[in-house]
Amino acid sequence: MAVSPLISQSPSSASVSTSTASKAKSLAVRSESQSATASHLNNATAALELAEQMNENVRRKYVKDNKLGEGTYAVVYLGHLRDTPSSLVAIKKIKVNAEYRDGLSMDAIREIKYLQELSHPNIIALHDVFSSKDQNLNLVLEYLPLGDLEMLIKDGNIQYGVADVKAWMGMLARGVWFCHENFVLHRDIKPNNLLIASDGEVKLADFGLARSFADPYMNMTHQVITRWYRPPELLYGARQYSAVVDVWSMGMVFAELLLRVPFVAGNTDMDQIAKISEAFGTPTEENWPGVTRLPNYVPPGDRITPLQGREFFLRQFPTAGPLGADLLMSMTTLDPCKRSSVRQILQHAWWMSEPKPTFKESLPRKSGGSKKMGNDLSRRAGEDSEGRFKNAARQLDFGVK
Ligand code: AMP
């Protein structure tokens, strides 16, 4: 009999299920570590039966409804609590992949591990985990019905202004701050992973590429973060990096919210570096000491763009105002050692300046909501990006974690 995974975090069930689960686990551990006497074998069997029963209890709590969407490693369904059908959830069913010996992808393991640890209004909540009869793993997540920031950016019928951008960026910054305070890197921040709750709250989702960064000298893979949101140190192959990789991605989301089109959208990793250099300045030993020693560093040739200053950011992003332009510049500093931390970002004067961030309930929303007028950031014409946000980082090799 296979052992079913058991994780329960829903506010209603967490305390009961967790204590019973740890009892079950300690039973199982004890019976493994001691000699195989009959009584211990009985304990192990009892633990497995208990685990199966608990999984069954969790599974029976939910009813799966229609399909909401599909990602690289999971299909997402709408669901509801059997006892209270008005309580909606999203059930993410992990696709079993023959490539993985145990049938579970690393993405699923990472997502469960980190969502279990992180509880914050701007991070999607994981309520439960259960395995279905076919041994597929199901993550029961908070249901976020208002789509994601990518949808809003691309929807030409939705008008929004800088006060709305300030509200969305504030929610993103608080979610990322909480991750970093808990030593978790998200490593795939992009508009498509910022889901919106019914009250307008933005929630950081999809922790399939997340990892902890408590040890600064640990080698990590550089093949993370969807290319357009990936910082230059990862494009140059850095194996030791810090939380500011997520800050660069936040800067790219900020720029995209202001322009309504991705700011640096390379077709290949080399093209991405070329576009970053063109936009922000060519990385050199002067503006980024040590850059030339990074594993995938390529000399730029004759075309050197000088490092851009405040005037460039103000010219490119006039709607952000001088303080907003200054904040964006601090997020997109080439040298990671000089880039702001998310804590510094939250202390920036932009948040306190006029206009104040829109209240979350009044933010523009997909379909049905009223269109906001005035102070609109209009879409740049002719740059349709349909289909280009497809989990680029996931298609790469994850040999080094
Ligand atoms: P993912 O595999 O996380 O990229 O999810 C695939 C799609 O399912 C997303 O693009 C959303 O449309 C939808 N989805 C994922 N999670 C949720 C959720 N918590 N609430 C509502 N829809 C979701």
UniProtKB/TrEMBL annotation:
Compositional bias per record (Basic and acidic residues), positions renumbered to this chain: 373-389
SUPFAM superfamilies according to UniProt: Protein kinase-like (PK-like) (SSF56112)
A Pfam family that the UniProt record links to this protein: Pkinase
Top-level taxonomic group: Eukaryota
Keyword Phosphoprotein: yes
Binding site for ATP: 68-76, 92-93
Keyword Transferase listed: yes
Protein's name according to its UniProt entry: Serine/threonine protein kinase (Kin28), putative
